[in-house]
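Q: Convert this sequence to C-alpha cells.
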Amino acid sequence: MNVENKNLLHRITAHSFFKAVFVFVLASISIGFITNFIATRKKEPEVKQSVTISALVGISKITFTVYPEKRIPATGNWSTEMDVTVRHTGSPTIVLQRTGLVTNSSGLGVINLSNSETIPPGNYDFTFKGISHLGRKYSGYNLSTVYSYVDFSLSGTKLLAGDTSNVVDNYVNSLDVSTVIKNIYTGVVKEDLNRDSIVNSLDLSIQIANLYKFGDT
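A:
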C-alpha cells in the first residue's frame, strides 16, 4: 500500500472515530437530559384541587301520625279526613296547606310537595282540623330531611271531636248537637264521632264533653 493510500485510510478511520465519539457524546447528553427531566417531574408536588358544593335541600314529603279521640275500637281506628296547615314556628304566615287529606286506620298521613312548594329545613307548627274535630295545633316540630316524619301522637294530645255543623266555626255548640240528634241511629260519618258505624248516644256524649270548647287557630 502506497503512502497516499495509507494517508487516506488514516483520514477515513479518524473521521469515523470522531463521528462515533460525537454520536456517543450526543446520545449521552440526550439520555442525561431525559433522565433528569423525568426525575424533576417526579419531584414536582401534585396539586390537589378541592371543590366545595353547597345546596339548599328542601322538604319534598312530610309523613305524620295524628290520632282523633275516643274511637271504638280504641286502636287501629284512626282514619280521619282533615285539613292541614303548616307555618314556620312563631309565624302567622302559611307556608303549606292541604284540604281533604285522609289519614289511614293507623293515623298516618302523607303530604307530598310539588316542585313549586319550597319548604327548607327548620321548625314548623302544624294545625289539623278534622272533618268532625276542633283544630289542634302542634308547635315547634323540626323538619330536617327531604322525607320527614313527625309523630304527633307522642304528644299525648288528640283531635277533639264534636264540630259537626255545616257552620265551620271551630267551636262546639248547640248547632253541632242538633246535627248529631238529627242523624241519630244512622251511619253518617261526620256525626259518627267514635267511628263505630252508628250515630248514637255514645257520639252525643263525646260531643257534650267538648261543648263550648274552641279549637286552635
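The helical segments are 3-43, 174-182, 201-209.
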